[in-house]
């Protein structure tokens, strides 16, 4: 069983795996570096989305290379993490949301593997962007933790790296969004195009602009993550342990997906 963890702000920690070794691979979209190791009976790949030194802003991440590299390793399941701002007062700072929908407000990122290079137009189904089976596994693992876990929510992805304006948050709320972030798109799109089982653990670090009376800072995000990072890391690995070979979802049979040669 091969499982990938894509870590966002503060989650990168090579010490959670045994015999962890850095591995570099080449893809048609660029080079990728990740850690490969063991955790109990699972083979785990850890990819630091922003780089090991957190030097890549959201709009500069090479999402296509990352996802293609993981598929080339024979991985079928991805657990990703994201620090988010909440525009839903019921999703409080310090809580966890396992999102089930997204709204895309990115503007300049390569967002698909299907860019017409092979003289075909492909439309991938996105009725259910996130793997329901993987979400249930994470929710089950989360029962042992102090933070509230909501197994439903809509994430809106903005371009970044700036925070959203109060007016933008007001618009997003009117569209039915609960959380705001900068990294989940196109990652979730590309994962679905390659037939991954993919789920995202959103950790709420703050209320979004206009919801909170305070001015938002990146330091606030880091402080909240720092106070809870041990539990977030532990939740991820507990979920990894619960993942079994039997698949009940349809992620790997999504219409409009790419078959990658190993």
What features would you highlight for this structure?
5 helices, alpha/beta, 262 residues, Rossmann fold
Structure commentary:
- This protein has 262 residues and is of the alpha/beta class.
- The chain has a single domain (2-253), classed as Nucleoside phosphorylase domain (Rossmann fold).
- It has 5 helices and 11 strands.
- Strands 1, 2, 3, 4, 5, 6, 7, 8, 9, 10 and 11 form an 11-stranded mixed β-sheet that branches.
- Helix 1 (63-72) packs parallel to helix 4 (184-193) and helix 2 (132-141) packs across helix 5 (218-242).
- The longest helix has 25 residues, at 218-242.
Describe the global form: globular
Mean pLDDT: 90
Beta-strand content: 25-35%
Fraction of helical residues: 10-25%
Number of individual domains: 1
Present the secondary structure layout.
Blueprint: E1 2-7, E2 18-27, E3 30-39, E4 42-48, H1 63-72, E5 77-86, E6 96-98, E7 101-105, H2 132-141, E8 149-150, E9 154-158, H3 166-174, E10 179-181, H4 184-193, E11 197-207, H5 218-242
Parallel strand pairs: 1-4, 1-5, 5-11, 6-8, 7-9, 9-10
Antiparallel strand pairs: 2-3, 3-4, 5-10, 6-11
Helix pairs in contact: 1-4, 2-5
Write a concise synopsis of the structure shown.
It is built from 5 helices and 11 strands; from the N terminus they run E-E-E-E-H-E-E-E-H-E-E-H-E-H-E-H. It has 262 residues and is of the alpha/beta class.
């Amino acid at each position: 069983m091969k499982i990938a963890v894509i870590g966002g702000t503060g989650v990168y920690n090579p010490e959670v795996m045994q015999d962890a070794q850095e591995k570099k691979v080449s893809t048609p979209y660029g080079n990728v570096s990740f850690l490969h190791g063991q955790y109990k009976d699972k083979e785990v790949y850890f990819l630091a989305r922003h780089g090991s030194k957190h030097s890549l802003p959201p709009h500069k991440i090479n999402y296509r290379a990352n996802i293609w590299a993981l598929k080339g390793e024979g991985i079928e399941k991805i657990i990703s993490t994201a620090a988010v701002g909440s525009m839903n007062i019921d999703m409080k700072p310090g809580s966890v949301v396992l999102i089930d929908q997204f709204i895309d407000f990115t503007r300049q990122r390569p967002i698909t593997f299907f860019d017409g290079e092979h003289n075909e137009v492909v439309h991938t189904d996105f009725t259910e962007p996130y793997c329901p089976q993987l979400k249930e596994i994470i929710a089950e693992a989360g029962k042992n933790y102090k933070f509230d876990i909501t197994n439903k929510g809509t994430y809106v992805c903005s371009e970044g790296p700036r925070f959203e304006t109060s007016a933008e948050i007001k618009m997003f709320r009117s569209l039915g969004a609960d959380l705001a972030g900068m990294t989940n798109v196109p990652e979730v799109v590309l994962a679905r195009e390659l037939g991954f089982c993919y789920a995202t653990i959103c950790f709420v670090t703050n209320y979004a602009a206009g919801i909170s009376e305070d001015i938002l800072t990146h330091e606030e995000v880091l402080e909240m993550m720092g106070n809870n990072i041990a539990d977030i890391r532990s939740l991820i690995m507990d979920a990894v342990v619960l993942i079994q070979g039997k698949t009940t979802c349809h992620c790997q049979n999504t219409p409009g997906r790419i078959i990658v040669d190993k």
